Amino acid sequence: MISRVLSAELAEHAGQRVTIAGWVHRRRRLKSVSFLVVRDRSGLAQVVAPGAVPGEETVVQVTGVATANPQAPGGVELTEPEIEVLAEPTEAPPFDLYRPVVPAALPTILDHAPVALRHPRLRAPLEISAASVAGFRRALDRLGFTEIHTPKIVASATESGANVFGIDYFGRPAYLAQSPQFYKQAMVGVFERVYEVGPVFRAEPHDTVRHLAQYTSLDAELGFVRDHRDVMAVLREAVAGMLEVVRGQPAIDLLGVALPEVPAEIPAIHFTQAQRLTGEFEPDLSPEQERWLSEWAVREHGSEFLFVTGYPMAKRPFYTHPDPLRPGYSNGFDLLFRGLELVTGGQRLHRHQDYLDALAARGEDAGPYEGYLRAFAHGMPPHGGFALGLERWTARLVGAANIRQATLFPRDLHRLSP
Ligand code: AMO
User: Fold this and answer.
1) Which of 114, 128, 332, 350 is the most buried if burial means most Cβ atoms within 10 Å?
2) Which residues contact 172 (CB under 8 A, 6 or more apart)?
């Protein structure tokens, strides 16, 4: 490795001759002196040089004396520099990366993602996303969960046939996994408590600000639950754990983001109550209803999170456990956050015969699910789980209007590259 200090550590080395390395973020030439701002993974450092200096996005290594200057970023700058060019760009960036406000529209940013994401404000949501995943893992590790990695090439659809990508698998039909649903359930039979952070695929025919064709699903599944409320309690811990790690991130300050509080118990309302409150009685909640309910939860409970429980069985997948006390309704829930469905989860069926009956009642052939159902033939405890959409979470957290602002190389109806 090139032996260097990070720009964020420069103040600790005041008075010493040190080496930094990174990209020329900004170059300013005055009459007798040039200012060079070098960007590395930790932030920005200023270099004062007597003569000409390399242009923006040149990769440099600079050795100089760390000298106190209250006007420099971090209060320290490098003087008496020796500048070595490690790589020279052959193309100019699509816009100035040093302007604090991004001077480009989303399609330009996405078309030029490899360089555009170098802008500190555009990189920040992805840093928050990484911190969220670290917090998710830490929270579930503490609760005795095992991380698993399930196949993404699968033999059957899980969440309904409509939005699944079909592929040719050595001459046989196969699909890109819409969810690790079946595998995470089966692994409850092995580990009791599992989670997965991985890509899932949805052939979404809609061009919306909240749907992607590939997104990152934070999944969990646990056994020996009494009902869906035990799953909701674990989800609460997972979300609180994500925020714990996010809270310390410089990206939060950079974006000026207000983080939500997670109430000790997140408020929950039944689906029928949600219908009554909004005065709409469709079998599923519309995006407008979700927005209204979120505002209601802030007004009534001071919470930016709201559980809606007891969705109608007809609107949930066949693996959903019915509410034993309310025919037609399920032990399935959604978690709304800042006006949007962030999580879907619930208690599942766990007896083999219940699965056969549920498929028959829906007029579905059990054949394609044989591999999945085998786990239940060997004894499965009452269990449940959830899946949280990472990009939706990050977008809501940073106040991005479009999910693509919180997605690395988004895939959608129109976008397959970069
Ligand atoms: P569901 O299909 O509701 O549930 O997905 C779970 C969560 O994933 C996110 N999400 C999406 N994010 C971006 N683009 C999309 N096209 C998209 N579709 C869904 C949402 C959503 O709440 N197997 C169940 C989960 C479970 O019960 O464990 C499932 O996948 O944030």
Assistant:
1) 332
2) none
Residues 315, 377, single domain; the answer is yes
- Centre of ligand 1 from the C-alpha of residue 388, in Å: 6
pLDDT (average), residues 275-286: 95
**Alpha-carbon distance 78 to 73, whole Å?**
11
- The residue whose CA has the least distance to atom 22 of ligand 1 is 343
Q: What is the dihedral of CA 190, 192, 193, 197, to 10 degrees?
A: 20
Domain match, 49 and 162 both: no
> What pTM was estimated for this model as a whole?
0.96
Closest ligand 1 atom to 320 CA? 27
Whether 385 is in the pocket of ligand 1, judged by its Cβ within 6 Å, is yes
List, in order, residues 6 or more apart from 254 with CB less than 8 Å away: 120, 121, 124
Report the atom number in ligand 1 closest to the C-alpha of 215: 13
Structure token digits, residue 93 = 């960036």
Q: Give the residue numbers spanning the domain of 372.
A: 114-406
Cβ of 339 closer than 6 Å to ligand 1, yes or no, is no
**SS3 assignment, position 243:** helix
Residue nearest to atom 1 of ligand 1 (CA): 344
Where residue 29 sits, what CATH number does that domain have? 2.40.50.140
Residue 206 confidence class, pLDDT cut points 50, 70, 90: confident
For residues 219 and 136, give the distance between their C-alpha atoms in angstroms, rounded to a whole number.
Answer: 10
The stretches of 88-205 forming alpha helices (DSSP H) are 106-111, 113-116, 120-142, 181-191
**ipTM for the complex shown:** 0.99
Query: In terms of domains, do 68 and 120 share one?
Result: no
Is 9 annotated as belonging to a binding site? no
Order of strands, sheet of 193-201, starting from the edge strand that comes earlier in the sequence: 146-147, 193-201, 214-223, 383-389, 340-347, 332-337, 305-309, 268-270
Query: Stretch 208-216: mean pLDDT, rounded?
Result: 97
DSSP string, 120-154: HHHHHHHHHHHHHHHHHHHHHHHTT-EE----SEE
The arithmetic mean of pLDDT across residues 357-378, rounded, is 91
Closest to 388 measured CA to CA, from 335, 338, 315, 320: 335
